Amino acid sequence: MSQQRTPLIAGNWKMNGFLEDGAARASDLAGRMKSTGSDGFQMLLCPPATLLNAVGTAIADSGIFLGGQDCHVNPSGAHTGDISAAMLADLCCSHVIVGHSERRADHGEDDALVKAKAEAAIAAGMCAIVCVGETEAQRDAGETNAVVAGQVQGSLPVGADTSNLVIAYEPVWAIGTGRTARPAEAQEVHAVLRQTLNDIAGGEVADHCRILYGGSVKPGNAAELMALADVDGALVGGASLEADDFWSIAMACT
Ligand code: PGA
Known about the structure:
- The chain is 43% helix and 15% strand.
- By secondary structure, it is of the alpha/beta class.
- Strand 2, helix 2 (52-59) and strand 3 (65-68) form a beta-alpha-beta unit.
- It is globular, with a radius of gyration of 17 Å.
């Protein structure tokens, strides 16, 4: 964790939750934020699109940010089932995740599409959280650093600056598996990502852009991951579905 970058603890609820439990969890977290304060970190909730309105209402005035899990590249039009960045912004979303490995795998999203989505998010006034990460086979082949650097090179939106870009490093083999990158492994990749940002976007962006770690972050491993020099928060899946666990992860940043 660096003094100059405020850690971001982002909950990616994925395709989980209904109105009652989603709103209750959001209200619970909002109450903790209001009573405890959020000195030293920022919190973001990315519920499924069906819950954005209810979660947004539950966290109003708490300081918790609201985000989408994906957006279309176009602002509107004939795209059945899709949601535009402008629509997310209309629901008071400040962030949107793009290029999650589940979208890359399930929907065949490539770097060029992820870049276009990130640019759509920025054009709508939001911050794009661009996800990158290697598969287990790529790690075993010693390709991790090249893969993630290539994904950043291919996915980095034009117009990215310190206010509208977050990178999330999520090793695919660590997502939802209970396996986590060892701290030294995570730090090495985060440093590669920051150097890549420096090469593409310059030192100002590289120094101030937050790079989140994701992949089986839990209360028990959050502190050692958040303590790493180039880890600036977490993108949390499973553990974000329990308010106690998610709050504990946030507390690891304080
Ligand atoms: P996980 O998911 O914490 O359940 O591994 C992280 C993510 O996919 O963002």
